[in-house]
Specification:
seven-stranded mixed β-sheet, 17 helices, eight-stranded antiparallel β-sheet, binds guanosine-5'-triphosphate, 692 residues, binds magnesium ion
Length: 692
């Protein structure tokens, strides 16, 4: 069987942590005979959560490809982690899917993470459906969960199914379109229970109305009092789901294997085929985005959405084919980087198992080992007709930890191990902080960074200690300034001469730095301008207040002078750097601190404690939304105050709260904080000087 644009579904499973995505994937693989032994998350035996870190923590950490075949269609399930630290994996998975299943736990209902993944799906305009899972659990309630879903995401979310029974008595589902009940693990067709007739009728009414509304012909027929046929309803619902106007709500239990066949049928019936999903490619200017109809004809265009590092097999590259066909043992062109790549054996991955394939066609997802220059986000294509697929946008890592190798041996291996770990995960970065001489590993949250450290130990044998690092303050100016520096030395032989006049201007927050050249009449010869810029750029690495990097300024070099013999690039670099420092000092410099958006969800009765704690953290509360006994508090707070919020929240709420943290912007730090930081930095410097 060849799978391509018509007979594939790429479906991402999304949810708040623990709603049951991995269990659901596992039972689907089992029911479709892709695996013969059913694993369990709690035993660490699922196909998806095979990584030792995942087994130990009983959560998913990496996205996993879990393909199966249902009714002659390849369903490429992508299981994602629900834990918010691993959002990078979720982003990548969302990007290469045409449809999403949002799993909601019938007992916990809509959670912070549910809202977050809804937003990702919304942003990507992914047609989606809800699966209300764990109907067998104590406290499960389908109707309460539906109410929450509708309250949060709108009336376009409508039940397509109703549960038969609930909690320990959960037996099956009623399909409101087909008007059939299916019970038990074999999804046996059964009578709709008499006690449910009224309920079924009223929910069917709502569903039919929602479907009819999207099509003039259907609504006419419906309002005329005519019954819509099952065919009309099914194709109407498909159209409604694909266009995002209806989000059907399904129900079941992954652990009890109930509702699974209907879920699979719905994926095939209502979620789009790759054929219907326009491909986003970069225009020739590399900026504008063009939409192209997908095709299995050349040229090839495949997007790399994940890279995993393995100490033994090396690098494994995951890609999604959008255009054309990719062949095993062939040559392709990395159109993002402009370089040739040799493709060896192609694979289809299912968890950790690899199945070799000869080719992969547009619409499909696979992997290849040992690519040379390709990294996540690149396009593999053809040299004659290069297409570049819009790269995936990953969230910026903001949670930083300083990495301290424990022994000399660890230190020696640290650089390589970090590089491999970072290559594997685009939401991890490493850099060396020039001020503190700390090696900083940045990620999305504490768990993310801790997992990375564990991985370094497990995969590369590097043992490190992770410490909370200093806050990445920045500096800027608040007033325009002009400054001049003449670097002049007349020693015995060859002298030194460079003379630069700069104009400094402050830019809006988030603009970064600009350098412009405004020299007229050749007072500084052209060939020295890059040297001036180098000096300026160098100077901006350390501001004049507390030595933090300078941002949001425009620096113009507008005048200067030179000496025909004594001038050199290094002299102009020094002059540029020194002039900048003078300008910064005159420009009313201020300290900027990173401000985070924080969204805290806690049971109502903790609201007071949370607010007073936030208050001590210099937070600004923007809003509070009570929902079903919970309160969602939205605020902004300086990073310096919330670097360890996870720990504080846990102790305030006994683990009942959850929160999300995202970088918002930089803001001027209040004077008392600025003074404290400056004093701390001076003390540090003095200490260093003493040691030296
Ligand atoms: N009772 C019941 N428990 C379930 C069901 N589905 C999953 N669970 C349990 O819920 C817990 C979490 O399930 P997972 O499948 O790991 O959930 P997940 O969404 O993959 O979690 P993350 O990967 O952390 O986001 C496990 O203990 C499962 O056994 C279900 O249908 N009924
Ligand atoms: Mg999981």
């Amino acid at each position: 069987m060849q799978y391509g644009l018509e007979n594939i579904r790429n479906v991402v499973f999304l949810s708040h942590s623990g709603a049951g995505k991995t269990s659901l994937s596992e039972i689907i693989l089992f029911d479709t005979a892709a695996i013969s032994r059913l694993g369990r998350v709690d035993d660490g035996s699922t196909t998806s959560d095979y990584d030792p870190d995942e087994i130990r923590r009983k959560i998913s950490i990496n996205l996993k490809m879990l393909p199966c075949v249902w009714k002659e269609t390849r369903v490429n399930i992508i299981d994602t982690p629900g834990y918010s630290d691993f959002v990078g994996e979720v982003r990548a998975a969302v990007r290469v899917s045409e449809g999403a299943v949002i799993v909601v736990c019938a007992a916990s209902g809509v959670e912070v993470g549910t809202e977050q993944v809804w937003d990702y799906a919304e942003e990507a305009k992914l047609p989606r459906l809800f699966f209300v899972n764990k109907m067998d659990r104590e406290n499960a309630s389908f109707f309460r969960t539906v109410e929450q879903i509708q309250a949060k995401f709108g009336a376009k979310c409508v039940p397509l199914q109703l549960p038969v029974g609930s909690q320990s008595d959960f037996q099956g589902i009623v399909d409101l379109l087909a008007m059939k009940a299916y019970t038990g693990t074999q999804a046996k067709e059964a009578e709709i229970p008499a006690s449910m007739q009224e309920q079924v009728k009223s929910f069917r009414e709502k569903l039919v109305e929602a479907v009819a509304e999207i099509d003039d012909k259907l609504i006419e027929k419906y309002l005329g009092g005519e019954e819509l046929t099952l065919e009309e309803l099914t194709s109407g619902l498909r159209q409604a789901v694909v266009s995002g106007r209806v989000v059907p709500i399904l129900v079941g239990s992954a652990l009890q294997n109930i509702g699974i066949a209907s879920l699979l049928d719905s994926l095939l019936s209502y979620l789009p085929r790759p054929k219907e999903h326009e491909v986003l490619v970069l225009g020739s200017d590399k900026k504008t985005v063009e939409k192209v109809a997908p095709s299995e004809e050349p040229p090839l265009a495949a997007l790399v959405f994940k890279t995993s590092a393995d100490p033994y097999v090396g690098k494994l590259t995951y890609f999604r084919v959008y255009m054309g066909v990719i062949e095993s043992n062939s040559h392709v062109w990395n159109t993002t980087r402009g370089g040739a790549e040799r493709i060896g054996q192609l694979y289809i991955l299912r968890g950790k198992t690899q199945e070799t394939v000869q080719q992969l066609r547009a619409g499909d997802i696979g992997a290849v080992a040992k690519l040379n220059l390709t990294v996540t986000g690149d396009t593999l294509g053809s040299k004659d007709k290069p297409m570049v697929i819009v790269p995936i946008s990953f969230p910026e890592p903001i949670f930083n930890k300083a990495v301290y190798p424990r022994t000399k041996a660890d230190l020696d291996k640290l650089g390589t191990a970090l590089a491999r770990i970072v290559e594997e995960d685009p939401t991890l970065r490493m850099h060396r902080d020039p001020d503190t001489a700390e090696t900083i590993l940045s990620g999305i949250g504490e768990t993310h960074v801790d997992v990375a450290a564990e991985r370094m130990l497990r995969k590369f044998g590097v043992n490190v200690e992770m410490k909370i690092p200093k806050v990445p303050y920045k500096e800027t100016i608040t007033a325009s300034a002009k400054a001049e520096h003449k670097h002049k030395k007349q020693t015995g032989g060859h002298g030194q001469y460079g003379h630069v006049l700069l104009e400094l201007e402050s830019l809006p927050r988030g603009s970064g730095c600009e350098f412009v050249e405004k020299v007229v009449g050749g007072s500084i010869p052209r060939n020295y301008i890059p040297a001036v810029e180098k000096g300026v750029v160098e100077g901006m690495k350390e501001g004049v207040l507390a030595g933090y990097p300078v941002v949001d300024i425009r620096v113009a070099v507008y005048d200067g002078s030179f000496h025909p013999v004594d001038s050199s690039e290094i002299c102009f670099k020094i002059a540029g750097e020194q002039a900048l420092k003078k300008g910064l000092a005159q420009g009313n410099p201020v300290l900027l601190e990173p401000i985070m958006n924080i969204k805290v969800r806690v049971p109502d009765n903790f609201t007071g404690d949370i607010l007073s704690d936030l208050n001590t953290k210099r937070a600004r509360v923007h809003g509070m939304n009570p929902e079903n006994g919970y309160n969602v508090i939205e605020a902004e707070a300086p990073l310096a105050e919330v670097q360890r919020y996870a720990i504080d929240l846990k102790s305030i709420t006994q683990g009942k709260g959850s929160y999300t943290l995202g970088f918002s912007h930089y803001e001027e730090a209040p004077p008392h904080i600025t003074q404290r930081i400056i004093a701390e930095r001076q003390a540090e410097k003095a200490e260093k000087a003493e040691k030296a």
